[in-house]
Amino acid sequence: MGEVGGFLRIDRAGFVARDPSERVGDYDQYFDLQPEAELKDQGARCMDCGVPFCHNGCPLGNLIPEWNDLVYRGKWKEALEALHLTNNFPEFTGRICPAPCESSCVLAINADPVAIEQIELSIVERGFEEGWITADPPAHESGRKVAVVGSGPAGLAVAQELRRLGHGVAVYERDEGPGGLLRFGVPDAKLPKTVIDRRIALLQEEGIDFHFGTEIGVDISAAELRDQYDAIVVAIGSRVHRDMETPGRENSGINFAMDYLYQRNRAVAKAAGLESRVAENEISASGKKVVVIGGGDTGMDCISNALREGAEDVVVLDVYGELPESGRDELTPWPLPPKRTASTYALDEGGKRKWGTEVTAFEGEDGRLTKVHCRQVEGTSSRNLTPVPGSEQIIEADLALIAIGFTHPEHGGLVEQLGLALDGRGNLKAPVFSSSVDGVFACGDARIGQSLVVTAIAEGRKCARLVNRHLGGEPTAADRDRLAVDSR
User: Fold this and answer.
1) To bridge 238 with a disulfide, which of 276, 311, 406, 431 should be the other Cys (CB 3.0-4.6 Å)?
2) Does 453 reside within a domain?
């Protein structure tokens, strides 16, 4: 474990955030890491609990106490090896995961948790700096070929695991670059796209083929794909927007949050000289009064982008009630992760949040949004809200962004052509990753519904084991060790 009693004398030190007034003027990463000496101290705070709730709270089962201790002792390379045993892409999770591991840290019962996410990111970035992270192609070739449809975190994870088991792997992505929502849904301020490109270059060195701008079911039929490959993995995410049946929804100026974020990320890429698609109908927050509906991570990312565009005012409406001083409500006692936090990077930059607020109508002039009507509500979720009498209010708005999630994956194209069965929620029916069609598998949000990046990676890793079994593959000794850890 770390230093005995270290948590009693050492306070938590989180990421070093840049000044909000400075960072809102650019798209550079909004935070830096603590220096090495501080990171060792943060590792010392880990108590090596008898029951490591952090390990259980992480969907990947990361060996957190182990690599906390290794960082504390300055054994960075060993820490990296322990980290990569369970996580293919810690440079992603270390930046954008909401860290359920920290919520379940025993210290979080009555104090600040260990800075697990920062230690994780520090380990992997140290690995890249030192040249320890290199391509790891398989020692043998199985002669079997797998097509992975979708290059989000689930697709990338299943692709890497299958390639390391010796199978030929091709990843098909309909967008112009890899990463899925990592690239197009997350602002560069949180996840610089160079971080994605760095990892993709390694996957290509390992022998994974990437085909961008290729939509299966449109550019290539599902039948053609089945003819060319021994197995198919569908990792297309959950991309059908959850809409609002609200009076005035037909006014222009009301858009889905992810449509806005896709445009903004492409605009940033284009400004950097990278090839990027141009939107036919631009969604811009510049000079506008913006209302974001939905207070999750996507909503916060909309705030951050709108402020960087130069919006006049940005407010987010969240149906959840205001957090108590403890930072947790009655629905999320330890070790559960809270639904919301007291503040976020976007709110620090100038966004405003209205707790317990529900939209009742949109108002427009000449078909263009001008006002958002709302009211205060009470309840524990969006399913049991009760209006507060006399709490109605009107917010002037030029742009409204709907950030209330997704319903299920798209059912046309590939899914329709393969004839894949759906579950009751419209997700792909694949209880143990095998779909209703032999040789076709599903993982990630397409299988379980919208979730976290860390869950998507875990989905991909587990799915790879089932695909490998279907292909008749036998893992090597090293693979067995890694997969044994992954299944804990």
Assistant:
1) 406
2) yes
Same domain, 125 and 152: no
User: What confidence tens digit (pLDDT) does each residue in 107-148 have?
Assistant: 999 999 999 999 999 999 999 999 999 999 999 999 999 999
Same domain, 392 and 457: no
pLDDT value for 462: 97
The percent of the chain in helix, strand and coil, each rounded to the nearest 5, is 35, 15, 45
Q: What is the mean pLDDT of the chain?
A: 94
Are the beta carbons of 63 and 82 closer than 8 angstroms? yes
Residues 342 and 248 placed together within one structural domain of the fold: yes
- Structure-token pair, residue 473: 């593959």
C-alpha distances (whole Å) from 246 to each of 249, 372, 375 are 6, 11, 13
Number of domains observed in the structure of the chain: 3
**3 state DSSP class of 56:** helix
In the chain the first and final C-alpha atoms are separated, in Å, by 20
pLDDT of residue 486: 53
Q: Which residues contact 303 (CB under 8 A, 6 or more apart)?
A: 290, 292, 314, 316, 346, 347, 349, 351
C-alpha distances out from residue 204 to 168, 207, 427, 460, Å: 12, 5, 30, 18
- Residue 326 burial (C-beta neighbours within 10 Å; 0-12, 13-18, 19+): exposed
pTM of the entire predicted model: 0.95
pLDDT tens profile 353-409: 999 999 999 999 999 999 999 999 998 777 889 999 999 999 999 999 999 999 999
Q: Tokens standing for 390? A: 């006399």
| Same domain flag for 468 and 323 | no
Range of the domain at 318: 244-404
Strand pairing of 289-293 and 399-402? parallel
Q: Distance between CA 20 and CA 448 in Å, rounded?
A: 36
What pLDDT score was predicted for residue 478? Answer: 44
Q: Are 374 and 395 in contact (CB under 8 A)?
A: yes
